[in-house]
Amino acid sequence: MLKNVKSLGLVVFILLFAMCNQKSKSDSNKETILKGSIEVTVDETVKPIVEDQVAVFEGTYYDAKVSIKTKSEAELINDLLNKKTKVVITARDLTQAEKDKFVKLKINPRVTPFATDAIAFISNKSNNDTLIALQTVIDFMKGEPNPRIKGLVFDNPNSSTVRFMKDLAKVKDIPADGVFSFKTNEEVIKFVAENDGMIGVVGVNWLSQPSPEMQDIIHNLNVLSVKGLNSNEYFSPTQNDIAEQKYPLARELYIINCQGYTGLGMGFASFIAGDIGQRIVLKSGLMPVKTPGRKLQIRNTINNKE
Hints:
The chain is an alpha/beta fold. It has two domains: 36-116 and 252-288, 3-Layer(aba) Sandwich (D-Maltodextrin-Binding Protein, domain 2); 118-250, D-Maltodextrin-Binding Protein, domain 2 (3-Layer(aba) Sandwich), CATH 3.40.190.10. 39% of the residues lie in helices and 23% in strands. It has twelve helices and 13 strands. It has helices at 2-28, 47-60, 73-81, 96-104, 134-141, 160-169, 185-194, 205-208, 215-218, 239-243, 264-273, 275-284; strands at 36-43, 64-71, 87-90, 110-124, 131-133, 151-154, 179-181, 198-203, 221-223, 225-227, 234-235, 250-257, 287-288. The strands form two sheets. Strands 1, 2, 3, 4, 6, 7, 8, 9, 12 and 13 form a ten-stranded mixed beta sheet that branches. Strands 5-10-11 form a three-stranded mixed beta sheet. Strand 10 and strand 11 (234-235) form a beta hairpin. The longest helix has 27 residues, at 2-28. It is globular, with a radius of gyration of 25 Å. The termini are far apart. It holds the Pfam family PBP_like_2. Keywords: Signal.
């Protein structure tokens, strides 16, 4: 009898040990704000800055893995609403109608602004005129031909750049004639560099942080200075003009987290909005939401080395 009791006790001990060990293993694989893996869906027009953020984030937190999937703005918002993705980076905040949908789904999206980006107009290097009025582009989008513009080239019919320009022009649809669309900003840049008279509409991040294979192509482009609707001056999509709110095509960038728990999405958003992430934004040529401070060390004496 005693032998049976000891055997039963041994079996229970082994089972408890196995359960504890399994729980320990499960806890070690559990996602936290700085550990685990997550897929972030990114607006294709701002892909370069997000790649930089991910590289530094993963290099700082070795147990964190962030994979990027690029899509158009309309596609990624649709995926977010249909729970196909939980974390996105986009060039606009959620609309009230979208927020209402999340309320019905009992989801509270965490929206974190982290940078000011801009839309840039580009032309072939052979075009000596590097100035353009925003009203001229708006009129062209309304179907009014202009000898200055042979064609207007967008990345994607569902992109944030198309939505931004349609909102400015107050048009529901873009004209069928004279407006072209591809799939990515890279394709727009290549097409404009090879075709005279075309005006490309791209995210300025692709120009400030070109990939190695795009650098020579960008040298064949002019980045146009733009006159706003209520201005007589022309401004470029430079960091300085964006910071002083002079450039008329600036826009905010957001990371929207719908995970619904304290996970890696929250950690990545905090990183981007934090000191290191904001320094990465500043270095990229975009404008951070919070300008990183500088520490100055003041000395009373100077030590000259021999």
